[in-house]
């Protein structure tokens, strides 16, 4: 888990390399981007998946 966190912290393009999908057991975890952006990205992706489901 620590290695994943370190790799995500050094990610130069966090939206293209989806570190926002790394979610800890106790909650969303850290995020180096704008406040609330991780939650928004996860909700946006979940909505897109739900709309695409039959």
Number of helices: 2
Proportion of helical residues: 40-55%
Distance between the termini: 34 Å
Number of domains: 1
Largest sheet: none
**Class computed from helices, strands and strand pairing:** mainly alpha
Radius of gyration: 12 Å
The proportion of residues in beta strands is: under 5%
Work out the number of β strands. Answer: 0
Q: What spatial form do the alpha-carbon principal axes imply?
A: globular
SSE pattern: HH
* Uncertain stretches of 5 or more adjacent residues: none
Attribute tags:
54 residues, mainly alpha, globular
Description:
The chain is mainly alpha-helical. The chain has one domain. The longest helix is centred in the last third of the chain and has 16 residues. The radius of gyration is 12 Å and the shape is globular. The model has no long low-confidence stretch (mean pLDDT 78).
